[in-house]
Amino acid sequence: MSQLTVLRLNMTNVADPSTRHRAALEMAEYADGHGFTAVSGEEHHPAATGWLPSPLILAAALAGRTRNVRISINALIVPLYDPVRLAEDVAVLDNLAQGRFGFVAGMGYRPEEYHAAGRGWSRRAALMDECLGVLIQAWGDEPFDYRGTLVNVTPKPCTRPHPVSFVGGMTVAAAPRAARFGLPFSPPMAMPDRRSRVSAGAERARQNRVRPPPRERQHRDAAARRSRRSLDAVRRVRDERDRRIQRVEAGGGAAAQRNRRRLDRGGLGPPSAMAEKVLTRVSISAWRSDRAAWSVSPRCPRRWSCGRR
Predict the structure, then answer these.
(1) What is the mean pLDDT of the chain?
(2) Taking Cα atoms as reference points, which of 227, 229, 246 lies closest to residue 285?
(3) SS3 106
(4) Distance between CA 268 and CA 275 in Å, rounded?
(5) Using 50, 70 and 90 to split pLDDT, how confident is the model at 308?
(6) Which DSSP category does 149 fall into?
(7) In this predicted model, which residue has the larger pLDDT, 300 or 89?
(8) Does 273 score more than 50 pLDDT?
(9) Per residue in 11-44, pLDDT tens?
(10) What is the mean pLDDT of residues 174-195?
(11) What one GO molecular function would you report for this record (predicted)?
(12) CA 70 to CA 57: how far, in whole Å?
């Protein structure tokens, strides 16, 4: 298993907010240049320690200061947002970050956050379900009915079938909710005492989950096939180069060295450089509907599928 390195920015206990926020961008830029996997933020309102009330604005700033690192909000309290506006904001952010943005959808655990936003604490589960359903439909290709009005959210996100999204939570109902919407479940910590109940509930919900429209499923399956073909092409190029190197080096001596340099100048380069060069042009994602999870090749660069070809 490859090692993951994450820079966490929660912005708590800030004496000088302007200095801290500028420092956060500089830290993210450093992490991006030194091989970190992701930079993560969080969301809370109104917190005595400050915390981070505008995670999407921070994520947009991070997208402008970085090029490779993933940007994740863990968690985004989606019941506090207007669903259509949130779909638009995330779609724009996904395009800005070129597929590097993702979030964990959470309900939160503080009633005061709902009171501050004018939302009913007792309706948080219903608000969560409504928002998730609207997000999935809004990021699709077709207009959809939203409270009696036909809505078509634009722009569409570059990540297909939709931006990287997880469902978080620690209750027994959280995993079935993720399965019902066909999204991966991301609990904040291990819950061995609830594993059997959570698994049973998730399996029941998976059988009745909200499936994407036929056009979205076709798009998803076609993207998966293109990804597999791209990986096969990379492997064929790598294997062919290895065979050519073996033939060149079998001769030995100065002639072999000259041939090796000529081979490198031909554009393939050393095996590791060749693989990295090719793989950076290949973004692999396959939506595995049977498990409702994203599957990414271990050799794929640290990004999800984006519309760039």
Answers:
(1) 77
(2) 227
(3) strand
(4) 9
(5) very low
(6) E
(7) 89
(8) no
(9) 887 678 888 889 999 999 999 999 999 999 999 9
(10) 81
(11) oxidoreductase activity
(12) 15
Task: Please give the pLDDT value at position 222.
Answer: 62
Task: Dihedral sign for Cα 210, 211, 214, 215, please.
Answer: positive
Helices (H), 165-305: 174-180, 195-207, 214-250, 253-265, 271-279
Which residue's structure tokens are 């994450």?
6
Tokens (6 digits) for 281: 């042009």
Residue 271: both structure tokens together? 């095996």
Structure token digits, residue 191: 């819950």
* Nearest by Cα to 65 from 38, 96, 93, 29: 29
For residue 31, give the H/E element and its range: helix 17-33
Average pLDDT over residues 157-181: 92
In the chain, pLDDT over 90 holds for what percent of residues? 50
Tell me how far apart the alpha carbons of residues 25 and 127 are, in angstroms, rounded to a whole number.
32
Query: 290: Cβ–Cβ under 8 A, 6 or more apart, which residues?
Result: none
Determine the residue type at 288. R
Residue 309 tokens read as 């070809």
Of residues 103, 35, 117, the one with CA closest to residue 75: 103
CB atoms within 10 A of CB 108: 21
Structure tokens at 236: 């064929």
